[in-house]
């Protein structure tokens, strides 16, 4: 399986990647903003995308929109520090399958990925 991690923070990208351990992902790609996320999605066709919300150039919600236009069956887990319920609801309305609040732990990332991949 292929994973695309989208976050403007190198620390967060690495934290998510480290939390995968010896997981099911054979390829892991990263992007630092929504524009690159859409480009990387088209290039690598990942099975799962983790998506930050607040990023430069194109935010995560707009990137979710663009990715869902390209593949309505895309599997997206939003990972954000925005704790308001409206943001989570909006992300899911736009097509995300899950929402994980930062800061993340290896266990929370694994649990969230297990949850969205079990559907």
| Share of helix, binned | 40-55%
User: How many β-strand stretches?
Assistant: 5
Number of domains: 1
Order of helices and strands: EHEHEHEHEH
* Strand order within the widest beta sheet: 2-1-3-4-5
The CATH superfamily bears the name Response regulator
Largest sheet: 5 strands, parallel
Name some characteristics of this structure.
Rossmann fold; 5 helices; 5-stranded parallel sheet; globular; alpha/beta
Structural features, described:
With 119 residues, the protein is of the alpha/beta class. The chain has one domain (2-117): Rossmann fold (3-Layer(aba) Sandwich). The chain is 45% helix and 19% strand. It has a five-stranded parallel beta sheet with strand order 2-1-3-4-5, sandwiched between helices. Helix 1 (10-19) packs across helix 5 (106-117) and helix 2 (34-44) runs parallel beside helix 3 (60-70). The longest helix has 12 residues, at 106-117. It is globular.
What is shown here, in short?
This protein is of the alpha/beta class and 119 residues long. It has one domain (2-117): 3-Layer(aba) Sandwich (Rossmann fold). It has helices at 10-19, 34-44, 60-70, 85-93, 106-117; strands at 2-6, 27-31, 48-51, 76-80, 98-101.
């Amino acid at each position: 399986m292929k994973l695309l991690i989208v976050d403007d923070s190198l620390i967060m990208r690495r934290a998510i990647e480290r939390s995968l351990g010896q997981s099911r992902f054979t390829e892991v790609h990263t992007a630092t903003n929504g524009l690159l996320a859409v480009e990387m999605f088209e290039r690598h066709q990942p099975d799962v995308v983790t998506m930050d919300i607040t990023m430069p150039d194109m935010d995560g919600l707009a990137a979710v929109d663009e990715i869902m236009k390209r593949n309505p069956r895309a599997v997206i887990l939003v990972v954000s520090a925005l704790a308001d319920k409206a943001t989570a609801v909006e992300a899911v309305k736009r097509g995300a399958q899950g929402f994980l609040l930062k800061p993340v732990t290896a266990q929370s990332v694994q649990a969230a990925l297990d949850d969205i991949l079990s559907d």
